[in-house]
Design goal:
Layout: E1 7-8, H1 11-16, E2 23-24, E3 69-74, E4 77-80, E5 86-95, E6 101-104, H2 105-108, E7 112-115, H3 123-128, E8 133-134, E9 137-142, E10 163-173, E11 197-202, E12 214-223, E13 228-232, E14 240-243, H4 252-258, E15 266-271, E16 293-302
Antiparallel strand pairs: 1-2, 3-9, 4-8, 5-6, 5-7, 5-10, 9-10, 11-15, 12-13, 12-14, 12-16, 15-16
Length: 303
């Protein structure tokens, strides 16, 4: 069986996002029995509505692989995945010998997160996903020694079986550490703001946020009246995950302030108290009542 992913949620993530505001640190697709494990929303940290997607066809090779064979069906764009990156994927897996399917994330309607180099997936995935880009589709034909070896997995994968996957990279999220948190921000205090203000201190060059998408972000929360930093998700390392939907996010000004932001960007959002946490403030991040909130948002991926 697959191990259950460890979920990390900061107080800031919980305070500003009502749904799905957690990052995943232990990504385990492909590590064990893939024939009876659920990869549905309840066992991953990728939020959003499940939607069954068409399953791509796996083209069986003429001979069983004796080494890893990587075939790019479609080449993606932007960052190439490297060790430490978090790759969000959809995939279908079959026996190379006869095409018997043993796992399929497309039918389950949820992409799955994999951290490269964490040792949580079979070696064929660890090696075969290096270099893949968002939007890329890749077939991996994997010999048993880079798959499930002499143990097999579940009822379908027998000892010594070669396996083949078609894997689609939905997003590639770069690895971050607490030391990557920006320290050169010039934040001006805000008290009594009457409208949401945004400043793109680093305009992104990727896709624009769209309603209903899943976002991977880092956040810094700053008290408006004195520009004091209250909390930061950077301390947890990995970006946090949130669904961009009006009804799924608090405060309201956070949703509004993200509109039009592009992947790769860094934006400062100033939220008036009446569009933030109002007269009650927010105890989780020590924001006093009736105080403007400033959020510094780094957007790493959308999908």
């Amino acid at each position: 069986m697959l191990r259950t992913p460890a979920v990390i949620c900061s107080s800031l993530a919980l305070a500003v996002m009502a749904l799905g505001a957690c990052g995943d640190e232990t990504d385990t697709a492909g590590t064990g029995d893939t024939t009876d494990v659920s990869l549905s929303a309840g066992s991953t940290t990728v939020p959003g509505t499940t939607t069954t997607l068409p399953t791509p066809e796996v083209s069986l090779p003429g001979e069983l692989p004796t080494e890893l064979v990587v075939t790019d069906i479609e080449v993606g764009a932007d960052r190439e995945a490297q060790e430490g990156d978090r790759v969000i994927v959809n995939y279908v897996g079959v026996l190379t010998e006869d095409g018997t399917e043993f796992d399929n994330s497309y039918e389950k309607g949820q992409p799955y997160p994999v951290t490269l180099g964490a040792g949580s997936v079979i070696q064929g995935w660890e090696e075969g996903l290096i270099g893949i880009q968002a939007g890329g589709i890749r077939q991996l034909d994997i010999p048993a020694e880079l798959g499930y070896g002499d143990q097999g997995s579940g009822e379908v994968i027998k000892p010594g079986d070669a396996i083949s996957f078609v894997i689609e990279a939905v997003a590639v999220v770069p690895a971050t550490t607490p030391e990557d948190e920006p320290t050169d921000l010039d934040i001006q205090p805000s008290s009594g703001a009457t409208e949401i203000l945004t400043e793109d201190v680093r305009p992104g060059e990727g896709s624009v946020i769209a309603e209903g998408q899943t976002l991977e972000v880092h956040l810094i929360a700053i008290r408006g009246d004195n520009a004091e930093t209250l909390d930061s998700t950077w301390a947890g390392g990995s970006p946090v995950v949130v669904q961009y939907a009006r009804e799924a996010m608090t405060p309201r000004g956070f949703y509004e302030g993200l509109a039009g932001m592009k992947v790769g960007g860094r934006r400062v959002i100033t939220i008036p108290a009446d569009q933030g946490f109002g007269e009650e403030g927010n105890a989780q991040i020590s924001l006093p009542p009736s105080t403007d909130l400033i959020l510094v948002v780094d957007l790493f991926a959308t999908y």
